[in-house]
Every structure is written in C-alpha cells, then in structure tokens.
Amino acid sequence: MKDKLVVGITQGDSNGIGYEVIIKALSDPRILDMLTPVVYGSSKIFSFYRKSIPEIEQMDTNAISSASEAHPKRVNIVNCLPDNVFAEPGGATADSAKAAITALEWAVRDLKSGSIDVLVTGPINKKAIVSEGFGFPGHTEFLQEAFGVKDVTMFMISERLKVGVVTGHIPLKDVPAAITEEKILSKLRLMKSSLEQDFGIANPRIGVLSLNPHSGDSGLLGTEEQEIIIPAIRKATEEGIMAFGPFSPDGYFGMGHYEQFDATLAMYHDQGLAPFKAIAFEDGVNYTAGLPVVRTSPDHGTAFELAGRDEADPRSMRAAIFQAIDIWHHRREWEALQEGKMPVREVQEEHRQHPGKPQIA
Known about the structure:
By secondary structure, the protein is α/β, with parallel strands linked by helices. Helix content is about 40%, strand content about 15%. It contains 13 helices and twelve strands. The protein has a twelve-stranded mixed β-sheet. α8 packs across α9 and α12 (about 315-340) runs antiparallel to α13. Residues about 355-360 have low confidence and may be disordered.
C-alpha cells in the first residue's frame, strides 16, 4: 500500500483566500512526511501571499513546470500561469478567473495521467469563470464531463455529518421539476457505493429529506413526497439500499435525527449545505462522489473580503487534503477486499495505519 501520495492542489481564484489557506495548511513541516504537495498556479503569487502571513517565516518551495519534477520534501508549485501574472486581492477579475481555469485544467490533465494521486481544488468564483468561457457551473460538473461518468453527486463530508444533494447548482425555482425518481435513486446508489468504498462503512443508513414543509403534510403542502420521493425510497430499499424517510428537514436537523444515519440526502443545494455548514463548517469538505478519481475541496468560497489580510481559516483546506488521502487509501483497501487479496483483518490494520487526518494544529 502506497504511504506517501502526491496531492495536487489548485489555486482557485488568485484574488481570493485560496493561496492563504493552502499556504497555512501546508506550513507545518511535518506535512511533508505525509504527502508530496503539488500546487497548480504561480510561484510569484504564492510568494506574494506567503509574505502577507507574518507567522510563516520560512517555507521550502520548489518551482516546477510539471508534476513529474516534484520534490518529495518541498511544497512544489507548477508554474502554469504567465510570468506577468499578479494578484489583486479583494475581487474577481478576468485574469484571476482565467488563472483558476488554467490551474484546474493542468491539474486534471496530471490526474488523468497519474502524475498526481488525488486532487484538492481551491475555491473559485462561478460567475467569473463562466464569464471567461468556462462551460460549467462549478468544479463538480466539469469533473463529471472530464472523466466521462453518467452521474456524480456533491457530497459534503465531516466526522459529524455527511450530506449529498439531488440537485446542485440550479435556481431554486427549477428544483421541483428537476427532482425525479430516477435521479433520487441514482444519488442514493452513488452515496451507498461511496460510503462503502470511500469511507469503509458497511451497510450504510441514509436519511432522505422531503422537498416540502412537513413532508408535504399528506399532499396539503405539495405532492412530490407521495408521487416521487416515497416511491424512490421504496425502489432503493428493493435494491438493498438502506434508505429512510422522507424527513422534514427542520426537525431532522433541529432535533439531531441526522445522528442516526451515516449520511443524508437533501433535495436541493441550500437544504443540505445550510445545516451542514452550521454544524460542520470548520472541518467540512466538499467531495465529488461517483468519479473514478478522488477530488475534494474546502467547503467555503473565495471570501474576497478576507483576501490578503491573514484572516482566512485553513482548517477546511487541511481537512480536504487529509480526506483526499484517507479516501484514496479506503478505495485501495476496498478494491483489495473485493478481489480477495486482503483479508478483513489486514483491512482493519490498514485503517489503524491511516486513521484519518493527522493531528496537526
């Protein structure tokens, strides 16, 4: 089993807090004993933001043109941006959006070739990148197309809570029409598979939320529960998926019912992400379930208002890095177990050797 992975990290929007949280997350020298970081962006901009963080006086970096040149004991920076690039902390620009797109495209190319083992993406400004010709509403949709998979799901994960969504980056007015039995079933299948192979949870229990208040109140407040969600849960149960609900979101989260389940499936973006960030914002991670590769990101955005001020919290970025590594190891263990190459006791020993994100303050 491979112990030290090469972790690709994209800068995100260079005018946001991406560089700051990356630098802070990688500032402890013990990190380099656990992984080889490869940051996609600009060594010039990296240096600019590092100087804005007084507590980080020294960081061993290595400017490279390809991930294949990565030094195992340094923070490697793939210079994929023009030499005249510069940062303007505080708001998205055409140049910062183009830089975010370029960094992502280079990293995905290396992920496909095996030059990096896992991918962690820095936060982007969706409106800015779309304005610059990026044909997707976010990382999730881009990666789905890049790796040619039929479906993926945004899976928000932490030690306390895991939340998937049926519909992602679409207007709220379009949500009811986008919810179908097959889409709910597809997300439940993805979540079950991910919980088993990516997180080592056998026979996972998934709570399913309602769309309407009070689960539709027997049709008084909406019929989606009776006509779509309940039939989808029944079909999932017939397939061997332990899905339960639908539950009214207010009581489900407010009374802590989510603690009875290994994961929760929400009907739309804010229904799942609002409670997730209220409960687990500091160490929350956005994971794309359903890809043949591992991609995570912090659960926050660009936070332009904090950029360049040494105020950004790196905990979510650090958690995203360690979660990517953990998921990679879980997948290898799952594959070995399915092929009969690793007895259960050896899988348990692997879990002891890779027990989650290391305790680095």
